[in-house]
Amino acid sequence: MDMNEHSANAKMVTKLLFRLLPIQILLAAVGAVNGIVSSFFASNYVGVEAMSAVGLFSPLQLLLQAISTMLVGGAVILSGRYMGQNRQEKLHGVFSLSIVLCALIALLFALLFAVFGMFDLVGLFTKDPAVRPLFDRYLLGQAVGVFPFMMGNLLTAYLSLENRGRRATIASVVYIVVNVALDFLFVRVLRMEALGLALASALGLWVFLLIEAQYFLSGRSHMRFTAKNLPWRESAEVLRIGAPGALGTGYQTARGLIVNWLITAFVGSVGISAFAAANNLLGIFWAVPNGMLAVSRMMISVSVGEEDRQTLADVMRIMFRRFIPLMCVIVAAIVLCAEPLARIFYRDPNEPVYMMTVWGLRILPLCMPFSIICMHFVCYGQASGKQGLVHTLSVLDGVVCVAGFSALLIPWVGMNSVYIANVLNGAVTTLVIVGYAVLKKKRFPRNMEELMVIPDSFGAPPSERMDLTVKNTEEVVSISREVQSFCEAHGIDKRCAYLSGLCMEEMASNIVLHGFTKDRKKHSVDVRVVHKDGDVILRIKDDCVPFDPSEQQKMADAEDKTKNIGIRMVFRMASEVRYQNILGLNVLTVRIGR
Predict the structure, then answer these.
(1) Which residues pair with 528 in a beta bridge?
(2) CB atoms < 10 A from the CB of 555, how many?
(3) pTM, two decimal places
(4) Where in the chain are the domains?
(5) Model pLDDT, residue 364
(6) What is the DSSP string of 239-264?
(7) pLDDT tens, 379-398?
(8) What is the model's pLDDT at position 358?
């Protein structure tokens, strides 16, 4: 494939990723906005002790996130794989199974939080007599929100797979509004303190979940839930795929407990308050890399299912060339605005908590570009079965580096050691990614595929595939000839080669004539021809309005035999025709046998 063809495929992937990105950032920001709102009301209307309660809950929140990450990551990656393979029954089975598993686990954790809060079993987290009762009540309120938190995360991911991000966006906006209103009512008006902080968030999450769930309950969704014949055996695969990502967040839970202990021992509760404030403020900005990962995860999982090594590598190229520079600009803005941001919670510059928060906002953001790299390679490792790399990165990023560097530096550097440790952690994980590629390839990686260590057996090798791009009607005929020449060069008989070129011409011209004219946007058709097992596989992908040729063919057969002759001809010539709309892209696969 020449540079123009490679560039065209990369442009389509870039366009898709950035179209999905704003919605995913907003969805990722929901929890961060909740944290900022809760922290604002805690610091301004309850006190520093309430902020400590919010900070002490952070490791438990990470634990919930770890479980949610395991379910969502495993289910979405497996669903994306089945979607790429067009295995609909398997797809619906995984969807139903993930709903049931999520509900059972959420109810278990809600019960645990309620018991801990009711019977004051929080001695493991704090001995402070002023903070302990606040933390008890905060746990009780948070127990109400466990179910909608976990189920909402799962449905959000499936809405994205169905290209229904707008509904998730509406749910997010409504949630933020409800959360702010209830915080004002419970904390400012009714003086419910820590219990009010937690209940406001929990009830807002229920509203969020109901808005998302309505789409799946309406019967309009592609995903179908059924409690009959649940594929319980797939549970192991969901957990296996999702476990490394969950372990990463689980390690972060352990890291949070260790770091909280170090801060309490060497700095005091004021350090916990500063760390909580800095993390909650940065949470809104962490939504950017988390949103980037969300869109990349969907593309990576589908690409693995399709064995599309070109798109797989393009996703990583876009991460390095677009996502990281964008994140660096955001990081620079955060660092420059550190003091104004800190004043959201603490107004007096003479208080130690103020400068501790400021330095957190100056140092912590520097780890974000590194984290984008680490998260993307962990996701790719999960989807492609590179468990060794995933576990290594998860352990280092999750607990070893941050906790280790913090423990080494805190006696001499104080509170800033925790912030510096996060940056050093990012540098170490990036070096490990490069080192893994050097170890596997026995040389320094020369391109993205080598850095990713994509196996030679994955997908069709370059010698057995051809990638082309159609931008206008004039290119359709010439590409048809190229397809025919490719087939003949690979030993395909002339009849099959001719039919392959004819099929490509019919379908590509149909897209150009009808899809390109539906709006004023610029479009292109990404064409892939693969020689596999003696057959020719044509994969045609475009970003036009959804169009299922099989439905059009059925309508034509039922009405007028003279209509859509080209489409009907393709269905007669092909041994298999499959259509899917994946993440807003039309994907048509045509197999022509000898």
Answers:
(1) 467, 539
(2) 13
(3) 0.69
(4) 3-449, 462-592
(5) 96
(6) HHHHHHHHHHHHHHHHHHHHHHHHHH
(7) 899 888 888 898 899 889 87
(8) 96
